[in-house]
Amino acid sequence: MDFSWFLEAIDSLLIAPYRWWENPLIGWWVGTFVLCVWSVFLGEGTMRLVMRFNLKFVQESMTETAQRHAQSMNAMRAGDKVAYKAINKLANEAYGKTFFLQLAMAAASLWPIPLALAWLQLRFFRVDFPLPVEVPFLGNSVGYPFVFLPAYILVRIVWNHVKRMGRGQKEPSSRSVN
Question: With contact defined as beta carbons under 8 Å apart, do 116 and 35 qualify?
Fold first, then answer.
């Protein structure tokens, strides 16, 4: 499917941050980080929208999983192996359905990445960034994906940290609580 018409339609919006600075290197970094921020926010918005429409279904699926688990544990305590195995199979199916539903909803946040990479391909496919040393399979330079993807990951990590701080949640600790 050809999305070049869409990329051309949003090109002036996406290229603007790259032109905020006279220095092209600073413009590249600022523009790329702004593109990453837009990608994170667009993905986050999509994920929230998908979750909003699927929340009832997810809650029903999680409730079914918990109920089936409780039923299988009751059957095990009662010593009924046949019932335990049958109910446990249903619990595993409910868990799998819930897991993959949540995974699909989380994947909704990632769709802006290929869109951003496609736009970068149209605009910056000839731009190479020299590496200080030659790297096997890469050579002595890299292109836009090797800059965009780590920048996107960094912006995603910062965004998740900001969200947790906004909700008043503490950072997860590596120390165990006794």
Answer: yes
35 backbone dihedrals φ, ψ, rounded to 5°: -60, -40
Gap between the Cα atoms of 36 and 147, Å rounded: 11
CB within 8 Å of 148: residues ≥ 6 apart: 32, 35, 36, 116, 117, 120
Tokens of 77: 């305590």
> What confidence score (pLDDT) does residue 173 get?
52
Reading phi first (left if > 0) and then psi (alpha if -120 to 50, else beta), residue 88 is in alpha
pTM of the model: 0.72
140's enclosing H/E stretch is strand 139-142
Q: How many CB atoms lie within 10 A of CB 162?
A: 10
pLDDT over 70 percentage in the chain: 94
Each residue of 30-56: pLDDT tens digit? 999 999 999 999 999 998 888 888 888
